[in-house]
Amino acid sequence: MDIETIVTKQREFFLSGATLPLSYRLNALKTLQSALIEQTAHLEQALFEDLHKSSHEAYMTEIGLVLEEIRHHIRHLKKWARSTRVSPSIGQIPAKVRIHKEPFGVTLIMSPWNYPVLLTLSPLIGALSSGNCAVVKPSAYSESTSNAIQELLTSLFPPEYVYVVQGGRKANEALLEQSFDYIFFTGSTTVGKIVMASATKNLTPITLELG
Question: In angstroms, what is the C-alpha Rg of the chain?
């Protein structure tokens, strides 16, 4: 599938309301959790091939942190998703006011090479927990780990829910030509400026974690 088709299918899937129920979100998190536990050794090997991280370092600085974040989301998601009652302003009295949390929609996650598991899957956990769809773009410079992540996510989720795009600069450019509802980028300041400029064209909310 080309990137435009991917984004279109994800937006249709999101607008169908399929990702909104808490049961769907929790099932996605638990599915990812189980697969990560089963694939720990495979991810550790990929991290060794790319970055020469020992299995201990790979687990302590990446895989273990991702698993702990999933556990935290599973434990607290029901509470986070509840509407919150707040005091009305003077102009709203005697109304009752509540804050309802809603997902953004179709998100883009672009991650770097140096912590490829942590900085790819951690934003994904937040996206799925919130009820979003996600297009994931791991780094081309951590090839073994990016391939392992693609295999993992492709085996777990349908492409209209989670899709992994591989490639280098051309893939990044093609992705940034699309209209996403939220972008999460981790990487250099130079590339961050490009991502920011693309996001402003559509007033897309964005998180930049720059090195």
Answer: 18
Cβ neighbors of 187 (< 8 A, separation 6 or more) are: 110, 111, 112, 209, 210, 211
Residues 6+ apart with CB under 8 A from 82: none
Total residue count of the chain as it appears in this document? 211
Helix 143-156 and helix 118-129, axial crossing angle in degrees, nearest 10: 20
Amino acid at 33: Q
* Digit-coded pLDDT (tens) for 133-166: 999 999 999 999 999 999 999 999 999 999 999 9
Q: Which pLDDT tens digit goes with each residue over 158-188?
A: 999 999 999 998 999 999 999 999 999 999 9
Asked if residues 129 and 63 have their Cβ atoms less than 8 Å apart, the reply is no
d(CA 118, CA 3): 24
**Which tokens sit at 151?**
């295999």
**pTM for the full model?**
0.94
Beta carbons of 168 and 101 less than 8 angstroms apart: no
Q: For strands 97-99 and 84-86, give the pairing.
A: antiparallel
Collapsing DSSP states into helix, strand and coil, what is residue 101? coil
Select from 199, 195, 203, 42 the least CA-distant residue to 112.
195
